[in-house]
Amino acid sequence: MAKLFKSKTIRSGGNAKTIKGDKFGEYETAIMYLAPAKQALMGNVCPMAETAGCEMGCLSKAGRAGMFSSIVEARIAKTQRYFSNRAAFMADLVKDIEAFVRYCNRKGVKPAVRLNGTSDIQWEVAHPCQRDAPKGHFSYPVAYLHASIFEAFPEVQFYDYTKVYKRAYRKLPANYSLTLSYSEASPAYAAAVIKTACETGINMAVVYRSKAIRDNMLSSGDAFGDASNGVVSTTRVIRPVIDGDETDMRFTDPQGVIVGLYAKGPAKKDTSGFVID
Ligand code: SF4
Questions:
Q1: What's this model's pTM, rounded to 2 decimal places?
Q2: pLDDT on residue 80
Q3: Domains contained in the chain, number
Q4: Measured from the CB, is residue 192 less than 6 Å from ligand 1?
Q5: Which of 46, 115, 163 best tests ligand 1's pocket when mutated (most atoms within 8 Å of CB)?
Q6: Parent domain of 231
Q7: How far is CA 167 from CA 80, 217, 251, 253, in A?
Q8: Ligand 1 and 270: CB distance under 6 A
């Protein structure tokens, strides 16, 4: 059985994945799971959840968290620490990512981290952290203040899905990849996401009701050859659709595509407009 990486803030399933092509190689992802939206009752970690209507179909309710209240309670406690003692939370996160980097080095794989497994925090803004200079560095063990966790860990590839579409207009760090998450729960939100995708070229993830529907949307390889390919129902966006379930490592996707996913768990029954028929 694959060895798991577990820490206070992030965990991985122990499965390193080889990405097709020499450009990427073998990565393992550690994910942080917080209590989504306002579940921790101290603030909102998903500012667009209400507008995008995604709370009901939220992945946090699928799988293990849906079955064990102890998991939900642990996520709530973690999120409350995020709100009540940000400095201590960021210090834990730095320690845990350092441990994950060491774990990946021992395994001979590259580290990838998704901080927003079940949240939508804008980590690139107002989340400074301290990290010690590495052993061997002339200033070891002096701690440096970094503007963000991405800056503190240039050796790690970070990536997330987001519904906070204004993030797409920011100049994000080179080691952070964002994919916009589409929803038709609110026509205003759908229009704003599409406008953002068109203006910035950022990839857009769309969750289809079933694998069959998603597979039907997969591009023939010609972005504009077949007008039925890549059209998101209420929009005029025509883009190639790629199979987003083949790998979760969104930073390896080509740019300017629709990342086609199909609904799993409770999301299959979603009627909010998040899941597209
Ligand atoms: S923004 Fe993401 S994590 Fe937050 S409620 Fe919506 S689907 Fe869940």
A1: 0.89
A2: 97
A3: 1
A4: no
A5: 46
A6: 5-276
A7: 24, 27, 16, 18
A8: no
